[in-house]
């Protein structure tokens, strides 16, 4: 196994950081890694906003319900799905914006953005740093967009904390491959038979070092999907210019 694959299998989200800012050199390396990923049709439909202003970071941290680690981390980036550049090009040529407004274009931008963030995450972990994605910024997506001055055809998808880990959680066991990987056809019963995994996750939550819980993967999912989350996100996307069609 390569060192990289071994590192990836030791990934954990870090939520307790040293309050040490990252050097300009390290940040440059992280950004370069994020920019190196594949990009659908090479549209590079993402932007990265580093939040260095303390008041701004504090407000975003509060929105995210992740105040302690967003404020404390080495640095904090917001990853933005971004078709504003394309909108500007199309407008300059007097062309229709329909091509960047539909659901497919939004998917393209969201996938490009996520690839960039994960490349940064893997790069950060290769340097011994820790990361945590912060989807909590979407708790008030319109306010985050306003705070960052985001224009139309952009969406703040998630934040990423990157810093020196103070403590780390245990690795969370992933789905058994039999529940997630198949050949040629989707095996419905096999993928939905989660008895073994539920036992494994229940053991993990009951015995982990901190924040022990009585829960398994099914109970977590039932809770998470008990009602639609952040229903206002659809309206925000429309306000940003996307048709969702
Ligand atoms: C898009 C995305 C958004 C996330 N948002 C948050 C968040 O707002 N706060 C948080 O503490 N963790 C967040 N996480 C981290 C997940 O909770 C974490 O990845 C998951 O529980 C698996 O744990 P692990 O990363 O330690 O293996 C997010 C992860 C992803 C991929």
TrEMBL record:
Signal peptide per UniProt: none
Please state the Enzyme Commission number of this protein: 1.5.1.38
UniProt GO molecular function:
FMN reductase (NADPH) activity
Q: Tell whether Transmembrane is among the UniProt keywords.
A: no
Query: The organism sits in which domain of life?
Result: Bacteria
Query: Per the database record, which ranges form the Nitroreductase domain?
Result: 12-163
- Per its UniProt entry, what is the enzyme's top EC class, as one word? oxidoreductase
Keyword Oxidoreductase tagged: yes
Q: Which UniProt keywords apply?
A: Flavoprotein, FMN, NADP, Oxidoreductase
Q: Which family does it belong to?
A: Belongs to the flavin oxidoreductase frp family.
Q: What is this protein called?
A: FMN reductase (NADPH)
Q: Which organism is it from?
A: Latilactobacillus sakei (Lactobacillus sakei)
